[in-house]
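Anyone up for a design puzzle?
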């Protein structure tokens, strides 16, 4: 009986090595269709370690949890952490009150923008000036006022365009003497759930409080201001920057059997904001990276090149974790086939994007067309601008790829209190990981 079993194992091992790519991809998709570990791992990290801000205890506990999962179930050839200095910030509590010239004051739901300062135990009351574009802002008289940035995000691709208000609004307004800023949430959805995200101060400019309100709150404030030019705003915030902390990047790999020195890297940030479980931004991608390794193990696929994952710190405020990873990669003179970054939620697979539309691009385009289009993956897209300053690309030669899932609903919940496990479409999430695993297998 034992001999017979051994023979069966041998036969299946031989048939594995001779398997056509089509069959192997079908096997991978079938594996993820039946898979339960991806969803249960995501559920555990979301429920037990939400609000994984860089420098927080939950972040550290999530790293410990993922280390345990990798060590116990995936058993990579190498597993290690890298210490990294990260910003540390207490979001505290915010309050935004509208004070009409006649009638009762009313409050708007609000959250602090990431790394913003508080009001030092005071309440700031001032006139408010609404701006809906850069041109508006340039023309507006804002000295001693609270600036209300109200440029709406037009569609799911409008995140970058409207994002200047949240990222630079406070610094731009402070330069011209404003006392605080209120920013419309970056989402196309109209509801009362405000979205946070980092705001970047400038070293030479005085820091002023920066608070996000919901799209519904912004519409309400804007309507009130049209009727009441003398309305004032009161804001208070207990947000506070704390001394930097030490966080950890988590790295795991299977060593390549032919070219161990050639690395295929999957990267995903582990930090998230204070106001949710950070399910889609970005626990889903961390789990996708782990599950890709697990699938290689379970399906007996031995990679030719080294397949490595890094779950890194501080994407949300400054990429400190990826910068540290890149610094070490440079010191070790590591060679990368490519780095694929995953940070677009848990929707089904949409496409892969590439920064260098030659060489590997040709291979990617061919394999996606040939093997993955029938699984719903669209034609490869070229990545323009924006990500050219990716830390690893700056330090070593590592063509930069992005995995893109279907982001139609992503910005509805992104950085808001709704980014929780219950909003994840589990079948789409697993199909996305199947696409990632297949892609890595085909590129290897
Ligand atoms: Zn993210």
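Challenge accepted. My sequence:
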């Amino acid at each position: 009986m034992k001999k017979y079993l051994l023979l069966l194992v041998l036969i299946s091992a031989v048939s594995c090595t001779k398997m056509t790519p089509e069959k192997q991809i079908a096997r991978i998709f079938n594996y993820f269709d039946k898979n339960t570990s991806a969803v249960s791992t995501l559920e555990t990290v979301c429920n037990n370690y939400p609000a994984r801000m860089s420098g927080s205890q939950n972040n550290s506990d999530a790293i410990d949890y993922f280390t345990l999962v990798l060590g116990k179930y995936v058993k990579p050839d190498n597993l290690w952490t890298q210490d990294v200095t990260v910003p540390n910030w207490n979001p505290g509590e915010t309050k935004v009150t509208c004070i009409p010239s006649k009638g009762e004051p009313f409050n708007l739901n609000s959250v602090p923008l990431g790394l913003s300062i508080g009001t030092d135990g005071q309440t700031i009351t001032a006139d408010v000036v609404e701006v809906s574009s850069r041109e508006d802002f340039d023309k507006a008289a804002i000295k001693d006022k609270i600036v209300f940035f109200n440029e709406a995000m037009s569609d799911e691709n409008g995140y970058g365009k409207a994002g200047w208000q949240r990222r630079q609004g406070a610094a731009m307004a402070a330069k011209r003497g404003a006392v605080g800023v209120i920013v419309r949430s970056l989402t196309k959805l109209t509801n009362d759930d405000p979205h946070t995200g980092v705001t970047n101060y400038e070293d030479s400019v005085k820091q002023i409080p920066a608070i996000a309100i919901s799209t519904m709150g912004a519409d309400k404030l804007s309507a009130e201001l049209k009727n009441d030019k003398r309305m004032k705003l009161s804001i208070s915030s207990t947000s506070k920057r704390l001394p930097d902390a030490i966080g950890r990047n988590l790295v795991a790999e299977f060593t390549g059997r032919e070219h161990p020195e050639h690395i295929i890297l999957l990267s995903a940030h582990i930090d998230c904001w204070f106001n949710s479980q950070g399910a889609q931004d970005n626990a889903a991608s961390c789990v996708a990276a782990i599950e890709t390794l697990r699938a290689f193990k379970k399906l007996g696929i031995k990679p030719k090149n080294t397949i490595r994952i890094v779950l890194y710190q501080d994407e949300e405020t400054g990429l400190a974790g990826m910068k540290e990873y890149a610094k070490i990669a440079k010191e070790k003179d590591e060679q990368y086939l490519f780095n694929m970054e995953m940070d677009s939620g848990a929707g089904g697979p949409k496409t892969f994007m590439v920064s260098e539309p030659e060489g590997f691009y040709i291979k990617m385009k061919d394999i996606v067309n040939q093997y993955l289009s029938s699984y719903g993956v669209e034609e490869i897209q070229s990545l323009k601008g924006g990500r050219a300053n990716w830390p690893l690309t700056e330090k070593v030669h590592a063509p930069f790829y992005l995995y893109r899932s279907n982001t139609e609903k992503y910005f509805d919940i992104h950085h808001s209190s709704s980014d929780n496990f219950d909003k994840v479409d589990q079948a789409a999430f697993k199909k996305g990981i199947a696409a990632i695993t297949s892609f890595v297998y085909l590129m290897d």
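A detail worth pointing out: The longest helix spans residues 279-298.
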